[in-house]
Amino acid sequence: MTAIDANQPPPADLDGGENKARWEIYAHGHHWRNAEDEFESAKFGMWLFLSTEVLLFAGIFVGYALLRLKYPEAFINGSAYLDVKWGLTNTIVLLLSSFTVAMAVRNAQLNQQLWLKINLVITLICAAAFFCIKIFMEYIPKWTEGKRPGVLFDYPYASDPHEPLWWGLYYVGTGIHALHVIIGGGLLLWVLVRSYKGIYGPKNYAMVETSGLYWHLVDLVWIFLFPLLYLIH
Amino acid sequence: MIQSLMTTLLPAATLAEVPPLKLVDETGNMTSGFWEELFFRGGATTPVAQATDGLFMLIFWFGVFWFVLLSILWIYWVIKYRRRPGVAAEPSASHNTLLEIIWTVVPSSALIVLFLLGFWVYMDKQIAPSDAIELRVSGWKWGWKVVYPDGEESSWQLPLDEGNTYNGGAGVPVFVVPEDTPISLRMSSQDVLHSFWIPDFRTKMDLFPNRYTGYTFRTPKLLTGQDYQDHWIFCAEYCGDFHAEMAAILRIVPKGEYVRILGDEFGADLSPVDLGKKVHAQACASCHSVDGSAGTGPTWQNIYLYERKFTDNTSAIGDEDYLRESILVPGAKVVSGYPNQMASFQGLLSEKQLEGVIAYIRTLSDRYTPPPKIEGEGEEGGEDGAAEEGAEADPQTDPQTDPQTDAQTSADPVQDESETATG
Amino acid sequence: MTTIDRPADLPTHDHHDEGSYLTPRGGMWATIWQWASTVDHKKIGVMYLFAVLFMFFLGGVAALAVRMELLEPVRQISNTLADGTVETVVTGQLFTYDPENIAAGNNVYNRLFSLHGIIMTFMFIVPSIPASLGNFFLPLLLGAKDVAFPRLNLLSWYIYVVGSLFGVAAIVVGGADTGWTFYTPYSTTTDAEHWRVFFIVLAAFVLGFSSILTGLNFIVTTHKLRAPGMGWFDMPLLVWALYSTSIIQVLATPVIGVTLLLLMIERLLHIGIFDPGMGGDPLLYQHFFWFYSHPVVYVMILPGMGLISEMLAVHARKHIFGYRAIAFSSIGIAAVSFMVWGHHMFTSMGELAATLFSALTFLVAIPTAVKVFNWTATLYKGSIALNTPMLYTLGFLFTFSIGGLTGLPLGALATDLHLHDSYFVVAHFHYVMMGGTVIAFIGGIHHYWPKMFGRMYSEKWAIIGFVLVFVGFNVTFFTQFFLGTQGMPRRYATYVDEFTLLHQISTYGSWILAAGLFLHLFVFVHSLVAGRPAPPNPWGGLTLEWEAESPPIEHNFHKEPVVRHGPYEFDKVVPPHCSEEDFPLPEQAPPPPAPKVVK
Ligand code: HEA
Ligand code: HEA
Ligand code: CUA
Ligand SMILES: [Cu+2]
Fold first, then answer.
1. Lowest-confidence range among A63-72, B392-401, C589-598?
2. Residue C55's Cα: distance from chain center in Å?
3. Is residue C63 within 8 Å of residue C75, measured between CB atoms?
4. Pocket, ligand 2, Cβ cutoff 6 A
5. SS (H, E, C) C310-355
6. What is the 3 state secondary structure string of C259-273?
7. How far, rounded to the nearest angstrom, does the alpha carbon of residue B209 sit from its chain's CA centroid?
8. What's the pLDDT score for residue A73?
9. C97: burial class by Cβ within 10 Å (0-12, 13-18, 19+)?
10. Torsion sign over Cα A151, A156, A160, A166
11. Which of C415, C416, C582, C597 should be substituted to probe chain B, the one whose Cβ sees the most B Cβ atoms within 10 Å?
């Protein structure tokens, strides 16, 4: 939201005739005193936003904890249904993407335009991979078997009356997380597109960094979800 | 554990000091002033309710004190220091640490006392004495049902007294409780949340579909010459269209009357033997055992068709006539070894109950040959409630009968302890 | 008192030639487009102001209907006619389309008070002061050109609009009968075949994002955009208030977000998390809901308190007493407010939890008390002008104190078991919300009106309006305390005869109140069309917003202001744009400047 001023064509006085890259003639927002303030604020704002995201998921985790306390069997059966293989793959995929996005930020700082794009692309591929695995390897098979949330549940071999509840939590938790994957992916895609305009560079990489931060959060949440849902027996 | 802690923190005396504890004299009239009248109409008639009012008035006057104090300053200073053109405000201090400390510490300490008192009276509403009669309350959209300890259910619909047009003048259910007795409620809902509020007793608790909640209160003594006393019960947790009409009346009657009503009116569907068993539990068990063990009075085991020896050295066979006589005129034949102290139940037991008791005593004798058994006992955990719901598609079911919900409430002690109110 | 030299790195381009932010540029459509697409915090603030006042109007009309219904208990009289047929008449029911059927009428009533509560909380009072006056004045108070993220600001405005539209749409198709608390399992089962409840919950959910983004924006602004020379303890108290408010918004709103999300999913899929029938737990919902909804009551009141501090200091021409105490108590309230949510659930939770929450509840009363005491001390030796803002400030002290003090019997366990969900609670929260926040809000609008629109309002009529509001309000709600203690439950469409008289008094009061508010509305409209132009600093305020023009220019200040004195040093500084004879200083030199602690 902050680097957008770089969209405007360079004011004549800044671009002394010879054509510089967009990031070089980047002018900070008019209401800021200087670019550092603007950049730090952007990061500060993003951190605040991430804290709200964490609290949002905290709500789900609390619900999970309490209901698990109430119906241990249902939850143990539930996680037994899940396929650790795919869960693990997704974890690795996300960790990798977190790494590449961190690299991307670095590339922007060092003005390695090519690598910036490459790393972003890898990250996006990971996001897509994660998403496809979720849908095709996890959701669809389970859904067709009847392992569905709440009233939709009709899995004949359920051994505990409260398994529908477990599935409810499973779909809600992973679903909301998947939603964040989409949002994060969207952000990064936007960054990628704009990086082709040479907007990001040492003088202007706030957008790369903030959307990178967001992506780390997506990763972090999964790091919590994965053991809670798949591992604890 | 908290209570013991509190007892150390706060000697029982403190409660007595809550002014004005006694809002009502023995005739039930307010002894208290204007504000109490405004706040609590007729006033409280049970100790706990009076303590509640006392605490309320204490907090009220506490608030009034600060409010008046501040108001005076506001008004006085606004007038004294109103702006005069061309005149500057005299310079004055812009802060004073000592003041800040004082007006932080003083209220804080006062508030601690208020909290402790609140907790103290609260506990009296939550912890039921061991001898309390436990009523099981269940609520549904939209009605109440009370199940008595032995499974009777109130069957009374009472048309409201003349001129009261509440609920379009239609009747409300009436629940009968004996006077001057501790009552404890064990409550659960059949659908959404409700709340069982008895304003006159100054307490309420919410009803949940998946757990038991409850509270306790002691019914007041009837005033001299009063043969019953009615108290409103309101549903205080929003529950839909008839939330406002989900009322009932708690009727306080003399103890004997209570026994009679339970037997005759509410227990109508019981077999004589079960009726007798219940009357025994309510009226006789304190003296007469049924298992041969000794008590204040003779055990009921093996009386029927056995020979009885009396203090006047006569003896008789314990047949129906003997039993009836012993109940109505206890002094006539006093079993040897026992004092003649049993009071007559003439008029306290209905004919039906008398029959029931005798029938019951008979079954306790091994010389008794049972007739074909009669079905009847057993409470349906508020099926009519479910029926009331009609089309209302609600997955909820009655905790008493639903294994699943039962499982929940018992399955998990942690939660029971932490989230179920005493009941 | 801070004095600093202008740092070298400050941009020195000025905004001399600019006109007021209100002056239209281009034709009508161009102007409309400029407003719709503006990132100027002032324009956004003004748009918010009108939006929330409109919502207040809607909610208020619903409230009047609620009071109308309660004017009489519902009576169902059946009398036999000459020809022997029995006719049933229902009297005292405002909404009767089926005389045989009280439920039909009750249902309308239930939708009305739910609608009233939902509009008033989610669409009016939460955004009210921060989003309107806060948006407009936070940057001005800080001497900044705009909030940290202007585009984000515009975004949260549109989210607010979308959310409100959802809400209004849901109302148009019949509204919800859940109450504003959406307690499960009722809220997940009622109107099962309709989408209304879903949409209303969705509305509240969406509105949550708006307030998160605003709060986030304000926090960063306060941290990063203070004018040179303005340390944390040179900030006006309104800024402190908005800052603590924002913290609560950012920390609490996500929880209601996930709660409402789960509620919506629950309604759609019945996944059962809150549904006892499937092993879920309604109590869990209540915990989630109040974990947000208690802190949010301080989101409602803190900005009001901030306005009070400003108005009190300016109109009493007096250094606010105990600046730090007030500033810290704002933070204190924000902190403690997260630990008392259980006091809404005393009648449904176990002894241990209840005891804990009761104790903490009394704790939360302290910082507020400290504020009130400091405000009182501020009046001492002031030079107090009894104009509308000041009258509303004093009105606030009265009504809010009553509201707050009646929170104490609610916080005490034994008494709350009696008072919970009775009209005592209704009276309590109207005294704090209407009598606290709204009173402060109306006062604040008057205080800042000249600055926002560059025109004065009619003092005479405004004062008459105040008297009506003050009297009407107290008549309406003071009676409800007695209703409550006497046993009148809330959310009742009909009631037992005993309560008729008190209910009637309350209803009459609501009419006086309404009259007053409408009068204010007309005063404002009149001022817009015919008010005389306002000077830049009509009240002689010392904070930075009064250095700007009235109305301010596009970029607020001609030159970036530099803070050279504390916000309340009325005894040392002649206010900007003001002359010494209008606002004289004390003759003898003030006592040697106290340590910088003092503000
Ligand atoms: C602006 C909103 C606002 C504010 C500021 C408050 C402030 C307080 N509230 Fe209130 N409250 C609500 C809005 C608010 N409340 C709402 C909306 C509900 C109902 C929700 C629903 O169920 O629909 C509610 C309900 C509510 C309950 C639950 C009642 C029930 O349902 O059973 C309780 C219980 O503890 C409570 C307590 C308090 C307390 C102790 C304060 C304290 O913060 C008050 C502190 C202020 C003072 C103490 C007065 C000023 C100080 C002085 C005059 C100095 C002298 C004072 C002392 C020495 C103590 N409130
Ligand atoms: C900000 C919060 C707020 C405000 C301001 C009000 C204002 C009013 N409220 Fe209410 N109220 C609630 C929040 C609020 N309320 C909530 C949360 C509930 C609980 C709902 C539930 O149980 O779920 C409730 C419930 C509630 C009840 C209880 C219903 C019940 O339990 O059965 C009643 C009954 O009397 C009531 C009455 C009123 C009245 C008469 C006003 C009056 O003050 C209204 C006055 C306003 C007007 C008459 C409109 C005029 C306005 C303009 C003309 C706009 C222009 C104004 C200016 C320019 C200044 N409200
Ligand atoms: Cu039952 Cu309200
Ligand atoms: Cu609260």
1. B392-401
2. 12
3. no
4. C 53, 56-57, 60, 63-64, 66-67, 113-114, 116-117, 120-121, 124-125, 179-180, 426, 430, 433-434, 438, 442, 476, 490-492, 510, 513-514, 517-518, 520-521, 524
5. HHHHHHCCCCCCCHHHHHHHHHHHHHHHHHCHHHHCCCCCCHHHHH
6. HHHHHHHHHHHCCCC
7. 21
8. 82
9. exposed
10. negative
11. C415
What is the distance, to the nearest Å, from the Cα of residue B388 to the centroid of all Cα atoms in its chain? 25
* Tokens encoding A206: 């706030």
Pairing type for strands B133-140 and B182-189 reads parallel
- At B103-129, the pLDDT tens digits run 899 999 999 999 999 998 898 888 888
Q: Output the residue whose Cα is nearest ligand 3's atom 1.
A: B194
Q: What DSSP element (H or E) covers B140?
A: strand B133-140
Whether residue C448 contacts residue C136, with contact meaning beta carbons closer than 8 Å, is answered with yes
- How far is Cα A142 from Cα A81, in angstroms, rounded to an integer? 9
Tokens describing residue C161: 């609009």
Q: Is residue A32 within 8 Å of residue A4, measured between CB atoms?
A: no
Give the Cβ contact number of residue C223 at 10 Å. 16
- Test C384 with B77 for CB contact under 8 angstroms: yes
Phi, psi angle pair for C78, to nearest 5°: -115, 125
| Cα C282 off chain centre by | 29
Among B412, B417, B420, which would you mutate to test the A interface (most chain A Cβ atoms within 10 Å of its Cβ)?
Answer: B412
pLDDT recorded at residue B419: 37
pLDDT band at C60 (very low <50, low <70, confident <90, very high): very high
Indicate the range of A94-103, B144-153, B267-276, B399-408 predicted with least confidence.
B399-408
Instruction: Find the ligand nearest to C365 CA.
Output: 1
Choose the closest CB to B38 out of C322, C418, C482: C482
Structure tokens at B112: 């601690």
CB contact under 8 A, B125 and C496: no
Residues of chain B above pLDDT 90, percent:
20
Q: Distance of alpha carbon C107 from its chain centroid, rounded?
A: 28
Q: Residue C117: which H helix or E strand, with range?
A: helix C102-118
Full-model pTM = 0.84
Helix or strand (DSSP H, E) at C468: helix C459-486
Distance CA B235, CA B189 (A): 12
Chain B within 8 Å of A73 (Cβ-Cβ)?
no
Q: By alpha-carbon position, which residue is closest to atom 5 of ligand 2?
A: C434
Distance CA B7, CA A220 (A): 49
Rounded CA separation A32/A216 (Å): 28
Pairing mode, strands B172-178 and B182-189: unpaired
B18-62 confidence digits (pLDDT tens):
333 333 444 555 455 677 778 887 667 788 888 898 899 999 999
* Distance, CA of C231 to CA of B164 (rounded, Å): 67
Do the Cβ atoms of C89 and C76 come closer than 8 Å?
yes
* Paired tokens of A77: 């059966």
Which residue of B58, B66, B113, B195 sits with most ligand 1 atoms within 8 Å of its CB, as the best mutation to test the pocket?
A: B66
| Shortest-distance atom of ligand 2 to CA C445 | 59
Q: Which residues of C touch A40 (CB under 8 A)?
A: 224
Crossing angle of helices C439-453 and C500-530, in 10° steps, is 10
Element (H, E) at C88: strand C86-91
Interval C507-524 mean pLDDT: 96
Rounded CA separation B397/B210 (Å): 9
Q: Say what the ipTM of the complex is.
A: 0.89
Phi-psi region of A198 (alpha: psi -120 to 50; beta: other; left: phi over 0): left
Structure confidence by residue, pLDDT tens digits, A5-54? 444 544 444 444 456 666 667 777 777 877 788 888 889 999 999 999 99
